[in-house]
Design goal:
alpha/beta, Rossmann fold, 2 domains, seven-stranded mixed sheet, 11 helices, globular
Length: 254
């Protein structure tokens, strides 16, 4: 799997991994700051952005894609920041190549299997768009709005709608993500804990990291530290980018 990626800056390498329905651009506010001091690699995960589509979509597959990309670039040691699903990919990396990771930063995600379906309305909206010939982006938003009330979520998704000769299409693999949704929400802990430097950053208003997950976090990442960003939700790095940048930079300096 040859992932699409963007490389910026010079220095030690840091890898940025986006979440579900995203692309390399989603952590752009972090990359913009980090590239002044680091060699920043922002990736499109498989089935997202400009990377290839594939029906296989386990966290081990996604992590191996990152490893293959870094091997291709001859990068041995690196730091990694992941958000949401991308944070699970980052955590999966620690099970495969723990000796190559200096710092692990987990943005608003726990190493647990989440219950229920959190994205049914999003998938319904994406499929609704696919049922129609789209000639204008505004048409796609109207179809999304039938299922997704949050205008911010609709605009986020529309970043991955691209024009082709016959209209518009999604960059991400809609049906592939639907087929693998149980895997995306699930989690299989590594057989050995990762003892490297680890930081979990939680959005105060988000429910992805809850007190009941503390034991699972500490069992898998015994040296983990935590930081809560006040008055932010799951998209904490976009809502308070300066604060999150400062927290990450202070951690990377340790």
């Amino acid at each position: 799997m040859n992932l699409h990626f963007r490389a910026e800056g010079k220095g030690k390498t840091i890898v940025l991994i986006h979440g579900l329905f995203g692309s390399a651009d989603n952590l752009g506010l972090l990359a913009r700051e980090l590239k002044h001091h680091y060699h920043v690699i922002s990736v499109d995960l498989r089935n997202h952005g400009l990377s290839p589509h594939n029906d296989l979509f386990s966290y081990q597959d996604l992590a191996q894609d990152i490893i293959d990309t870094l091997d291709h670039l001859a990068i041995e040691q690196f730091d990694v920041v992941g958000h949401s699903m991308g944070a699970k990919v980052a955590m999966a990396l620690t099970a495969l190549i723990p000796q190559r990771i200096h710092h692990l930063v987990v943005l608003d995600m726990a190493p647990v299997a989440y219950q229920g379906h959190r994205h049914q309305n999003v998938f319904d909206g994406l499929r609704e768009v696919n049922r129609h010939l789209i000639t204008k982006r505004s048409e796609a938003e109207q179809y999304l709005a039938r299922f997704i009330n949050d205008a911010g979520v609709r605009q986020f998704l529309l970043k991955s709608l691209v024009k082709i000769e016959t209209g518009y299409q999604w960059r991400f693999n809609v049906e592939g993500l639907i087929a693998n949704y149980a895997t995306i929400m699930g989690w299989h802990p590594a057989s050995q804990p990762f003892t490297g430097k680890t930081l979990f950053i939680k959005g105060q208003l988000s429910d992805y990291i809850e007190p009941q997950y503390r034991d699972a976090i500490m069992a898998q990442f015994p040296n983990a530290k935590a930081h809560v960003v006040a008055n932010t939700g799951h998209w904490l790095h976009a809502e308070k980018s300066e604060t999150v940048n400062r927290i990450i930079n202070q951690f990377l300096d340790q």
